[in-house]
Amino acid sequence: MGVPALVDAQRAHAAGVQRLLESYRAVPDGTAVRLAKPTSNLFRTRTTTQGRGLDTSGLTGVIAIDTRARTAEVAGMCTYDDLVAATLRHGLAPLVVPQLKTITLGGAVTGLGIESTSFRNGLPHESVLEMDILTGAGEVLTASPTEHADLYRAFPNSYGTLGYAVRLRIDLEPVTPFVTLRHLRFHSLSDLADALGRLAQTGRLDGVAIDYLDGVVFSAEESYLCVGVQTDARGAVSDYTGQQIYYRSIQHDTGVTDDRLTIHDYLWRWDTDWFWCSQPFGAQDRRLRRIWPKRYRSSSVYSTLMKYEQRFRVGDRIEQLRGRPPRERVVQDIEVPMERCAAFLRWFLDTVPITPIWLCPLRLQSDVGWPLYPMEPRRSYVNVGFWSTVPIGSVAGATNRRIERAVRRFEGHKSLYSDSYYSREEFDELYGGDSYRAVKKRYDPDSRLLDLYAKAVQRR
After folding, report:
1. By the number of CB atoms within 10 A of the CB, which of 164, 171, 294, 409 ranks highest?
2. What is the dihedral sign for C-alpha 86, 90, 91, 95?
3. Do 9 and 21 lie in a common domain?
4. What are 337-355's pLDDT values in tens digits?
């Protein structure tokens, strides 16, 4: 980035921060402060809010990229789509790039993001060197491991209840133009879990260092690990932004299949079909897919369609016409220790009628840990993602509640971006209640921002 462009970006950011502060000061006393965001990757129903949200219109860009230090300075509302477009021009990428293009840097840090580099790079917030945070007290503070360290460590998994990220400086890593893929087929969950643990621990397949690792479970008898290695070697590449569908491409009868993608298409391989969740909208029907405009095959479009479906209860109305009860939404990501992976998958497949299931190994890189999502540092975990609906139970959220109880039995946690049903006591125990309250009292003394339990469980 040249000096004039850098100066312009810094000035634009400063003006954006000023507008943000002015909009904060305009919020009447006693009114909850919230963001005005055009998109959201939260999947829990929320009560209707009154009043205008904070103006984040000037906080959406990349401020600077330092190719020598391999860092990026980014506004809090910048999407990973825009960040990756800027960094790839320099042969660099964020250490963890969450799967969906509309996820913002601030969202991935105050919430939790993950991807196939997490077995070696941890979670997105672990690559944050420092960040400016608008606190509930109306101050913009710089938080880092040495400055306002309590806020820095409590910010991940606080979901905007301790403040909003205004600017972040993050580490980048070098990447090559292409990724070679190997899709390994497994016929038993035990074999799958053993291989996943081994690959995550050693970081090698057949003696070759691996860069990316995730997996998909279609059934107890059909599952896959997808191993990626960066390469400069040119050659034919696959395209899953058109008529071909990525998750279907990994399926085969036995052994190993190979594939190649550009680094750009690999990072966004899940976005085109929102993993596999585009299917209910007809986007995977061959006839409809041919006429479905390519620019509208994206997670942002499907997410918008889903919100309209929920607003007008389209799915429930269709079920009613068919003489069936409404369905319960089960959209969750959970983490369990690596050694409990196979057992949890068996329980899930026997209990919850949802497939496919996404697997993503991770290991925290910090030796200190993060109080609001307390996993053991340097211990291997597996993220398990499942997103669909099931027949409604006898109580609201019956299947979600059953999953919450099971995750606790398997020594795991679940993310808070979707529906939760914990009691206050359970929630405090699982998500660092004492640590949270101490930081909340210091940086949001008048409770201008929502409480985490009120937001995550009570859907405020």
Report:
1. 164
2. negative
3. yes
4. 999 999 999 999 999 999 9
The pLDDT value recorded for residue 40 is: 65
What would you measure as the largest C-alpha separation in the chain, in angstroms?
Answer: 65
446 Cβ neighbours under 8 A, 6+ residues apart: 136, 137
Tell me which DSSP letter residue 398 carries: H
Q: Where are the alpha helices (DSSP H) in 34-148?
A: 80-88, 105-110, 118-121
Q: Which CATH number characterizes residue 231's domain?
A: 3.30.70
- Residue 256 lies in domain: 178-269
Count of CB atoms situated within 10 Å of the CB of 153: 20
Task: Classify residue 83: in a domain, yes or no.
Answer: yes
- Show the low-confidence residues of the chain (pLDDT under 70): 1-4, 37-51
DSSP 169-230: EEEEEE--SEEEEEEEEESSHHHHHHHHHHHHHH-EETTEE-SEEEEEEEETTEEEEEEEEE
Residues facing 141 on adjacent strands: 133
Q: Which string of DSSP letters, residue by residue, matches 332-373?
A: EEEEEEGGGHHHHHHHHHHH-----EEEEEEE---SS--TTS
Average pLDDT, the chain: 94
